[in-house]
Amino acid sequence: MSELVFFSGTMDCGKSTLALQIEHNRSARGLQGMIFTRDDRAGEGKLSSRLGLVTDAVEVEDDQDVYAYLVDHLSQGGRADYVIADEAQFLAPEQIDQLARVVDDLDIDVFAFGITTDFRSKLFPGSQRLVELADRVEVLQVEALCWCGARATHNARTIGGRMVVEGAQVVVGDVNQPEDIGYEVLCRRHHRRRMTAASARAGALSPDVLPVDAVARR
Description:
Layout: E1 4-8, H1 15-27, E2 33-37, E3 46-48, E4 54-56, E5 58-59, H2 66-75, E6 82-85, H3 93-106, E7 109-114, H4 125-133, E8 136-139, E9 154-159, E10 162-164, E11 181-186, H5 188-192, H6 197-204
Parallel strand pairs: 1-7, 1-8, 2-5, 2-6, 6-7
Antiparallel strand pairs: 3-4, 9-10, 9-11
Helix pairs in contact: 2-3, 3-4
């Protein structure tokens, strides 16, 4: 039986690397896949890893029907033994439904990769629909780490190293970009405190002040 599998995790935990590994393993066995992506850091129509690996992919447009696209590909003599959908959090819920239909009606495995929550710790609509529909949800075991060394569980958006909690849900960026709009993975504690690596360093340079009211000391 074919499956819809959602591989989830924070940024910087190796999702795209695993997607590329799955592509490599299957193509090495003579299988041919269809790769979809959306807003990859390497540009339009690319699936890339921070390790430097990259391959071509189909850039999914806002209103594109991915099921119809695949059916048209097959009807013209094309082949698709499996489907990979990277940056799946950026897909519309309707497009996730279409991926599920690929599994159910065409009997093709679909491997979707994406982060679950945005910089405000709110579910992406595409990720929410994947959690609702997937046959399996796999949390990646390569743990990204917060600057404090704890397991990173949240994605933070930064501007000049400072965490922000307002703005559009989707703004393309990457980790380790302190001068521009970037992203940083944090543990829940430091995400709640809005404490990035840059702000933690700044705080370490300031004198420690205990939050004790002057009246309370008398």
